[in-house]
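Protein: TLR7 protein
Species: Copsychus sechellarum
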Amino acid sequence: LLSGAWFPKTLPCDVESSEGTVTVDCTDRRLTEVPRGIPGNATNLTLSINHIPHIYPTTFNHLESLEEIDFRCNCVPVKLGPKDHVCTSPLKIENGSFAALTSLRSLYLDANQLAEIPRGLPSTLSLLSLEANNIFSIQEASFSELGNIEVLYLGQNCYYRNPCNVSFEIEKTAFLGLKKLTILSLKSNNLTQIPPNLSSTLRELYIYNNMIQEIQEQDLSGLPNLEILDLSGNCPRCYNAPYPCIPCPKSSIQIHSKAFDFLENLRILRLNSNSLQSIRSSWFKNMKNLKELDLSQNFLMREIGDAQFLTLIPSLVQLDLGAFELRYLDLSSNKIEIIKRSSFPENVINNLKMLLLHGNPFKCNCEAVWFVWWINRTQVTIPLLATDVTCAGPGAHKGRSVVFLDLYTCELDTSYLLLYALSASAVLGLMVFTVMSHLYFWDVWYSYHYCAAKLKGYRRLSSPDACYDAFVAYDSEDAAVNEWVLQELVERLENQKARQFNLCLEGRDWLPGQPVFDNLSQSIQLSKKTIFVLTKSYIKSGRFKTTFYMAHQRLLDEKMDVIILIFLEKVLQKSRYVRLRKRLCRSSVLEWPISPQSQPYFWQCLKNAIATSNSLAYNKLLKETV
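Structure follows.
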């Protein structure tokens, strides 16, 4: 109940703890060094988008529990970084700066102008990201300590937005020791060939937007477990390109007929933007598991008319051919159940001359309305339409041609639509009423009683000679709070030899049998001040809202601010009302101190707040402002 924060308030970061994970987020705080006071049990530390120029071996002392460090964008390359803060010198990482972090699993060092892979990294690393740096050479020694790496990002170290003006070099044995590597990204590095000796455990290889002009038979032979291969953008079409573009010497990327023979587990293949003019069927003869193939932004207008290669890809789910002038499309003998308006761009389907659809198990339900409507109106030739383009179901439609589907059976009757709208509105209205009553019941309840009193001619009685010095409003159902009020608050204010205060307490001074609303109103009216003892559970209760409204009403009716707030727990930290009150009348907002040495000062401040009118604080602030 009375515990405080477990990290210093001077820490310029957000700290969150959940299920054993302690996350410290220092993103974009204009830091020039790693801040002190980071909790020792932190597991995730984010220091991205700052201006920290140096990492020392002592930087992460006492943070041995760290599992992930995000240190991206502390020295972004000139052409990639913000114009208002140009980083002229690269981030410096002393050897062994991360060595003591034996629990570290993920390390992000992107966009820091690093010239080489840092040395002395912990062997526990499984993810290392070094994209958008100035690393132009990768040697085997760079990974000598990183045998457990599974995910490695090295992209964007040498391309038109981060130029290097040298050739990107990868030693032949550079990746030989990475026996657990599953994901490798070398995108946008001006590479001219696929690096040799890649780990056979590799499952994802991203090598797009390079300058690879030829793929040899053996380049991918050692990657039997590869599932995703992205080779796009290695030989782009340069006409009207929005970036510096050099045409391929042979006008197209050259791919050996057996280049993909060993990729039996490949699921996704991206060959878009490679100026391809032909597709070899032999590429796909072993790709029985291929589900996604991207061939967009190539020169395949004639090749796609035959598309024999598609017969070798039985598991294909998604085919991106880009904007071709397609005239002949054969979709026969597949497992197509429905064709929707969104299945084809209008400029593609309306330009077709012939469309083959026979041999598919079409579902003839109301989802097929647009498809049947289009078939009955299109000028596209559909062979065997009346005999072999048939329904696979449901029920009586099985075996019938799709052209015989009665479109009118799927039209919604207006009365049913109206009934549905009314019932849906009723259900929605009931839900809104239930939620609103749950959230604002006490607000409506108070407003009703207040307005009723006004209509009956009731008015507040002025009370210059109040019976009590303060009425204490608290959560009487919370045993801990109840004990604090009776043993601490009452003892300090009523039973001291110095000035004694007369308090109004719910359990002691309320009239039995009288309505709660009347007791609250009398207690607030007959007291000079109203003290709110705030906890997480109390601020959510209707009793707190009603009491607060009544106390605040005295400010509106009598121009008397009688509210004093005592925080037993960290609540309402972002409340605009609390922040404004601290600014206007700081003496009326008190926090229960954790340290026993500070408690006498707290009691003195509370006594001063009870004995002093809040208007004095307002007058003092007004004088300071003027």
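Remarks: The two ends are 41 Å apart (CA to CA).
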